[in-house]
Specification:
Aspartate Aminotransferase, domain 1, 367 residues, 12 strands, 2 domains, Aspartate Aminotransferase, domain 2, alpha/beta, single chain, 3-stranded antiparallel β-sheet, 7-stranded mixed β-sheet
Amino acid sequence: MKVPLLDLQAQYAPIKGQILHAVAEVVASCQFINGPAVKQLEQALCEHVGAAAAVGVSSGTDALLCGLMALGVGLGDEVITTPYTFFATAGSIARVGARPVFVDIEPDTFNLDATKLAAAVTPRTKAIMPVHLFGQMADMDAIMSVAAKHNLAVIEDAAQSIGSTYKGRQCGTMGTMGCFSFFPSKNLGTLGDGGMIVTGDKAFGEKLAIFRNHGSQPKYYHKWVGGNFRLDTIHAAALLVKLPHLKQWTDLRRANAARYDRHFAGCDAVKTPVIRQHNTSIYNQYVIRVPRRNELMEFLKQAEIGTEVYYPVSMHLQECFAYLGYKRGDFPNAEAAQDTSLALPIYGELTGEQIAYVAGKVKEFFE
């Protein structure tokens, strides 16, 4: 049996006609930039997560970058974040001239360990950027407490977690802003790159909208230096077709995760994802921790099962961040995760037979 890590065709097939129709309407209108679908999507996302304002942008990476620019974070400032994440998190901080300051992760959830935050705050700290990794929110009460004490902005990197909740609160709505990604592999993915910033502050939302368009308001008059961070109308139109299906797709992922959990019960070699009792996860990834990870990957590859390592090199060990002065051993939980974590297929269209096959092969390896 062949089980790819992700099968976008399986999701696309049932809604193909709607997607093609939505794209054709944009093409016929020739309103490719800031067309009506962009504002419609922004309103729909506001309602979906309960935000006051939403600003469509060109990618999840640009959502982080635009947010930092609008906050005025720059040279000499520090932003505290996790070393165990996709590059865009730390990369966006460095790109505005600020210094990424890392704190280690929780060993079971992979999320930033909020108990270590206070010790990382300095007079130069301007913001905290927690990442809601793999579909589960970080410990936002503890993060917001530190932020309030030191008057820091909180930028939720919610690229992997649209629809997840923390104590009933929607992802992206607890901090100063939340940044989503619509990369095709996400639970809500578009036809290429796309992103969204949400905020509870309408005035700040207006500022973000100006920054995404070269800092121009009105046209050709620039109060700030912004960037070209606009969300293409075609991508917005596709997302408007997909958004009503998001809950169903996420529920299917949760059901598949529960199936994996049952299959791996009693298999001591496999540590399944830990979801905090007050959290709901959208399972953007289903990441297990195992010994002999690389050998298992090769074994599953031979069985035509797709896997992926998120992430093989933590940010503090990346060559481009050598100037920060970190070394191996500084963040042991992140380093253990990079060496033992493995993502298995989790998309909603997987069948029970496919999940049983994947889990069976994993157990076969260790037996």
